[in-house]
Amino acid sequence: MQKAAFLITECKQDAFAFAPHFSRRVEAGFTAGQVCSDGGALLLREVDRKINLIGRLAACFSDGREAERVKHKTAPMLAQRIFGPALGYEDLNDHEQLRSGPLFALLAGQRELEQPLAGKSTLNRLELAYTLVEALRRLGLKGTEWAEAQVDTIRLKLLKIGAIVRVSARRVLLQLSSSYAWKDIFAQAFHALRC
Asked: 163-167 and 172-176 as β-strands: parallel, antiparallel, unpaired?
């Protein structure tokens, strides 16, 4: 007994003729191209051009990344995180969709509008890493050989230290690895921050 094979046709209709409205035809089609719901954001862009919020904020950051490896500059990432919530996109997950839109590229000041902006992971690192590590660099590592170190260097060499954590009723004790190579830098940072 032979089974019948059914061909499934794929329907790719782009235009639709609806019932007429009196003497007018009613038609719809997927022909508009890329559409966004945030066209009024250009007003926010003009506000920023007038008060230079993003430029002034970007000047507060010192970017210790290797310039030739930087894909997303600080100012456009700040623009994403400022314009996003202003338009109701408060969650970083929203940026996975927004990063490919030409309007957000325009708001972020990106020359090539078809190039994607930073994604949620990169934006998250901007928010977390720069704020704390920049303060650590400025306050705790000033005058040391790591005062200009990159975020990854500081993270790997100063923050990722093997430790045994012991908790009792009266204290929390971190027993740091006795073979840690940068004890002196750690001690300098500690004294600069605590004293």
From this structure: antiparallel
